[in-house]
Queue: 2 jobs
Job 1
Amino acid sequence: MKDGKIFITGASSGIGKALAEALAVPDCTLGLAARRMERLQQLKGELEARGATVFVYQVDVRDAKAMEQAVDAFANSAGGITHMIANAGVKSGGRLAGGTAERLTDVFAVNVIGVINSLVPAANRMVEQQSGHLVSIGSVAGFRGIPGRSDYNASKSAVQIMMDGFRLELRAQGVKVTNICPGFVESEMTGTNNFHMPFFLKADKAARLIVKAIQRNKKTYIFPWQWRVLLPIIVRLPDWLVPQVR
Ligand SMILES: NC(=O)c1ccc[n+]([C@@H]2O[C@H](COP(=O)([O-])OP(=O)(O)OC[C@H]3O[C@@H](n4cnc5c(N)ncnc54)[C@H](OP(=O)(O)O)[C@@H]3O)[C@@H](O)[C@H]2O)c1
């Protein structure tokens, strides 16, 4: 995306890092955010060596004020913002019973409220500019509850429904809206999974597919393609056929 002024949350590892690498071309300006600043600094060095301009922000997406400051600082430095990719996310807190509520509510704090905190300051700028593209990273998990993953799946479902509404809200103001729903992708999040992950993708391949979907202004992009075939079946499965994930 030549001349892009692209802000990515969760750029310190996994899909976010791979997206930054895929988007780092000479005329592009990137804003990379996460909590682990040393990783962002290292990535900045690598991407600037390729000719991209990179700004890094140590920020927790759960902090609305800090996100607003980071997005404003980026837009002021870059001379605007063309894309916000709200990618930061955490995995499930686990099962309903057997611990504190905080395990599950924190998943919403990052995966839903963190996405809102990222999108609002970007949307304000984009409406002013009358242009821009808001992107969230949802998941194929957002289409059905699964035991042991219900909080994560519900957080991704919330993102899907929000993005559907935001798209309709903003279309008259020149702002595009896309929700990306990946299947299993190589990252820190999947690195600890101890079950078979069907249709597993390397992070760089996933990033290339995501960039293409953004360029094509997809409303919702489910990938790899096998999930587009399977999801309509999975949502109709009787309870006894729903997989039990440890
Ligand atoms: N990998 C998959 O198979 C898969 C499939 C579907 C959807 N997704 C989604 O893809 C997105 C990226 O995940 P990933 O798989 O690439 O996992 P990952 O390697 O664990 O990356 C997660 C990123 O989010 C950041 N993050 C987490 N909590 C944060 C917070 N409170 N504030 C700011 N940044 C935070 C992390 O950075 P710091 O720890 O440095 O803050 C990290 O950069 C997530 O939304 C995930 O749900 C992943």
Note: Residues 9-16, 34-36, 60-62, 87-90, 110, 114, 137, 139, 182, 184-185, 187-190 surround NAP (CB under 6 Å).
Job 2
Amino acid sequence: MSTSKVKVKLSDRSYDILIGSGLIVDSGRLIKASLPNASRLVVITNDEINKLYGRNLKTSLKEAGFDFAIVTVPAGERYKSLTSANKLYGKLLNFGADRETVIVALGGGVIGDLAGFVAATYMRGIPLVQIPTTLLAQVDSSVGGKTAVNHRLAKNIIGAFYQPQLVIIDPETLRTLSARELRTGLGEVVKYAFISGDPLFEKVKSVLPLTDNISDLVPIIIDCCRFKADVVGEDEHDLGRRAILNYGHTIGHALEAVAGYRQYNHGEAISVGMMGAALVARAKGWLSEDEVQDFKALAGAAGLPLTMKNIDPDKVLEHLKHDKKRTKGSDNFVLLKGRGKPVVSSVDPRVIKETLRCLT
Ligand SMILES: NC(=O)c1ccc[n+]([C@@H]2O[C@H](COP(=O)([O-])OP(=O)(O)OC[C@H]3O[C@@H](n4cnc5c(N)ncnc54)[C@H](O)[C@@H]3O)[C@@H](O)[C@H]2O)c1
Ligand SMILES: [Zn+2]
């Protein structure tokens, strides 16, 4: 199987995202090739993923001659915490990790964010390699250097911008993912289809609804990574253009929170958020009815929701206001002026209120 390479070009350095079926079994060699001085590694993963992919990774790291340890945290968003990070610092110290030791994050966005945060902070930063195993992590969270843990009062509130040295994406890992976990990743894929424009939109449309053939997704994963890499390269620290990656996320985040992070997972919530953003853009005359229908059809084919069920729209509005305070009152609604033309715009609170009602 062929391996594709996407480069993330930062102001001071660049790194590769390697994408190819079966790459996990080759990861030892790939890590050695991009970090020639590395000899010691600590793999951070969770128990579920370790059972599925730990053995293959272990064999590959052994073959490449690494001295390594595999450490696990329990599965789940609630373990993306300072408590987990603290336990991991202890494991790193026991292993004798120094500034040359490499952290390998094997897992979905939870592991990637947590292990990334630990890599960013242990000894003020040690090298990091991401091996994302969920669709969401492969198209989004493993690329771009946002790392974080949650606080009891707010998600992702403690973190650092910390770029990996290498990202290894093996789409074969998606075969063991549940349908719902695949769907949450498709939420981000649909987002890229709308913010990046017609070529990706057409590609995504041609593979939905998904068949069992995971390899259909490979060219799409490559395109999503390429798009995100370009945006991150232009705005590593999220001061401008990177905001477009939050398409659908303003309402989406509020919905996730109001629904207690259970009824809607991230991709499902941002799908509803994108529906809201599409309605606002249509009201402004920026999106045509056909484009709104295209969104509905694509999200529908991905199995994603377009409305919020059993949710009080006023609670979502309250949450949006609360969020706005935290972002110092800035208006961070991403809207489309047509497919592939995202802009950041302010929206009249009355329009938001009305839109939320339309989503119920
Ligand atoms: N850093 C960023 O830029 C960024 C962007 C988006 C989301 N995130 C974060 O990502 C997290 C969500 O990530 P996620 O959706 O990947 O969820 P996740 O990491 O919780 O993974 C979902 C579930 O799938 C399991 N799993 C992972 N890979 C598997 C595989 N190949 N086969 C079978 N099961 C597998 C995990 O053990 C877990 O139970 C959130 O914490 C979110 O804040 C970060
Ligand atoms: Zn997202």
Note: The pocket of nicotinamide-adenine-dinucleotide (ligand 1) is lined by residues 46, 48-49, 52, 75, 77, 80, 107-111, 113, 133-134, 136-137, 140-141, 144, 146, 156, 173, 176-177, 181, 184, 266 (CB under 6 Å).
